[in-house]
Amino acid sequence: MSNTYTEEDLAKNLEEQEYKYGFTSDFKSDKAPNGLNEDIIRFISAKKEEPEWLLEKRLQAYYAWKEMTEPEWAHVNYEKPDFQAISYYSAPQQTKKYESWEDVDPEMKETMKKLGISLEEQKRLTGTAVDFVVDSVSVGTSFKKKLAEMGIIFCSFSEAVENHPELVKKYMGTVVPHTDNFYAALNSAVFTDGSFCYIPKGVKCPMELSTYFRINEGGTGQFERTLVVADEGSYVSYLEGCTAPMRDENQLHAAVVELIALDDAEIKYSTVQNWYPGNKEGKGGVFNFVTKRGICEKNAKISWTQVETGSAVTWKYPSCILKGDNSIGEFYSVAVTNNFQQADTGTKMVHLGKNTSSTIISKGISAGQSQNAYRGLVQIHPGAENARNRSECDSLLLSDRSGAHTFPYIECKNNTAKIEHEATTSKIGEDQIFYCQQRGIDEEKAIGLIVNGYCKEVLNHMPMEFAVEAQKLLEISLENSVG
Amino acid sequence: MEVVADNKVLAFVSDFKRPEDGSKVRQQALDALNGMDFPTTRVEEWKYTRVAKYVKRKYKQVQTTANVDQFKIADLDAHQLVFVNGFYDEKASTILEDDTVSIHKIDELDEGYYTDLMEDTEENVFSLINKGYQTGGVFIQIKKNKKANHPIHILHVLEGEEVMANARHFIHAEMGSQAEIVTSFASNNASNGFTNVVLEGHVETNASIRINKLQTEAKDVLNISNEMFIQDESSNFLINTVTTGGQLTRNGLNVIVEGENCHTEMNGAYLGTEKQHIDNHTIIDQLYSNCTSSESYKGVMDDKSVGVFNGKVIVRQDAQKIEAYQSNKNILLSKGASVNSKPELEIYADDVRCSHGSTIGELDEEAIYYLRSRGISKKSAQQLLIAAFIGDILDKIQNEAVRAHVDQLFLEDFGWRF
């Protein structure tokens, strides 16, 4: 959205649109009234000055969504959100969250300090700072310049719709169609913004792309949409989320992430998710219902790495469709649940092409009274000659009130495939803790140490800085969970 | 009974004679059937197994006799209980003189006992049809602190066209008793039959039950077996399932462990050819501490056959120090064969050691090459490797007569030697 766009323009625009589409609701504010109907979708689209084809897509998704029911198969219990009680659009506001650094919640400061986040960064994250933004912008701009030189497009989804409509039109919804599932449909209808990334042919992106560094941040909202396209022979490493605790008033998050790796391309997608998990009594917290999927063409590779520590309820299955011959899919995940958190997460590896291979490493850690489930699908289609899959799903239980569950689905329709799946569930050995304690390491530290060792296999796949923070995050997430 | 046209279950059973013995158990089952439907593949538990084609048929319950001698197990000195189309065939059966067991008709089972004990187990539409329309079955008591003198062989034979067998058995292993049960399923001059058998049991404190189950029906039979067992403290339960027959076989095996220090073991070998569909569903529900369970299923699928495995181990809160092991291994021999495997762990206690593994693959080419380079033909090499693979499971069958019978069966059907 351009900066010159004012309230008056908007009002004028809306009037015109009203006429054009014949909707009669009278929206004056920047926030849409609660509820979801066709008018709201037209309102969002109009606010964002979207082209008509996108509005069409949104409406299609909305009609599909109306026919769908919320999925209930996941191993989670929660009070379903009332979809008519949510406001689906509020304009990004640049208001400061805190008047001064002193007002920031000391508990939050403490956590950030433990994570090793610099003071500047801390201020930026809490939305306090004004003075150093200049600095950040300059860093961002220099990045942007370098990327632009190489032809890499990295911008917000709205900007992409405005500046690169042909790319968005070509790829959006090709991996996660609007009819995919309840939340994907909802997202396709009401998404407000997100990120777009395009790497041209043969280009190796020289830096880790991160939404964290992106300057045009401004509240991506609860219905985020990410589209990453890696053209033939290109490479990109993309980071999503950040380790700092996010206090967010939106309860429902339904994001869609689509990755497209064309021939010989490679996409590495790392996520750290640390949304507000609710308090120690299990009140509040974010519902995180995400649809993430990538498609691999010939010789392409998609690698998902995730560290999940937040959200009250997580429902997330980053998947790979291995369409092209010799393509590779990888999934490395650490999911930690504490207190009353619930997670049902895993992956889907769909083998369509010949000589495709996939690796799944999933580490679940349950503490407190949380429930942590791995749910994965490995599907070998008849044409996937010599497909190969290895899955390893380990669960660690830290308290006698927590639960760890494994629901793997293995479907094989080709006799040349080789599939191995193994899973274990156990608790930390008392002898291991005793060994540490003997050497003067207290119990809590010992657990942190053992857990980090347990997760090493996954953390090793993360970009370095991210991995260091993720490691500390694990320790913090499990504080006071010794039981 | 009024037949509601749009209710498939009521339409399915509409021709069955409604037994009027005033049994409360039956009535409850019939009431429960009202408003129920057959499972579709949209139901999680039936995701990989489609029964729609079969339940459209009109099966008959026909009492008849059959040539059952060919299905007896040689050298097995056992009580022979023969069921033809689900009806007890007294002439063909042999009950030996034995003071360690008592064998009654299922209808003699005390209703109160029957319902009290089994109310925990989940009934599905097929086991309810069985309960409502059962035409016979045995209630076997293994006497307290006695080891049964003879094994008990329950033989089910299908005879005739589109017949349905609804037999229901109950095994009560009293405190400290031990017994060996063989259940076998065969068909003779039958086409498109349906075996719908339920085997329930209560294994009391310190008792031990071993079951060998052999399914060798013709490849046009629908076999839905439901086994439900409850284990008390320090008891042992073992079942070996060998499946080579049936067009569609669905084994629902459900064990609830209601006491400490129990051991539960389930083993299975399934071999599919042509268009066979073999589905093994197991649940082990651990409610108390210090129990162990071990589960091992192996399948070899050839032609266009489909193998399904869904094993579930549930460890309830406070059931600490559980050791549960689950494994499912499959070999695919041909292009059209497929396997769906779903080993599940649902764990709510922390001090546990649970693991599962699942593999799918073809025969190891290097191993075949090794054998061939030593002058063994390709076919023999394959047979040797498959025999070694399945042999693990067959070795769990301790009874020599049963084992010999199974070996003979494999030799005849597949040319495999063990």
Order of strands side by side in the largest beta sheet of chain A?
Answer: 3-5-8-10-13-16-18-20
Poorly predicted sequence stretches spanning 5 or more consecutive residues of chain A: 13-29, 92-97, 127-139, 212-220
- Record field, number of beta strands of chain B: 20
- In angstroms, what separates the terminal alpha carbons of chain A? 51 Å
Short précis:
The complex is a heterodimer of chains A (about 475) and B (about 425). Chain A is α/β, with parallel strands linked by helices and about 475 residues long.
How does this model look, in words?
Chain B: It comes from Brumimicrobium salinarum. Chain B: It holds the Pfam family SufBD_N. Chain B: Residues 24-154 form the SUF system FeS cluster assembly SufBD N-terminal domain. Chain B: This is Fe-S cluster assembly protein SufD. The complex is a heterodimer of chains A (483) and B (418). Chain A has 483 residues and is an alpha/beta fold. Chain A has one domain. In chain A, 29% of the residues lie in helices and 28% in strands. Chain A starts with 6 loop residues before the first helix and ends in a 6-residue tail after the last helix. Chain B is an alpha/beta fold and 418 residues long. Residues 1-5 of chain B have low confidence and may be disordered. Chain B is globular, with a radius of gyration of 21 Å. In chain B, the strands form two sheets. Chain B has a ten-stranded mixed beta sheet with strand order 2-1-5-8-10-12-14-16-18-20, covered by helices on one side. In chain B, strands 3, 4, 6, 7, 9, 11, 13, 15, 17 and 19 form a ten-stranded mixed beta sheet that branches. In chain B, a hairpin with a 2-residue loop joins strand 1 and strand 2. The A-B interface holds A 73, 75, 380, 382, 395, 397-427 and B 44, 48, 317-318, 320, 330, 332-335, 337-362.
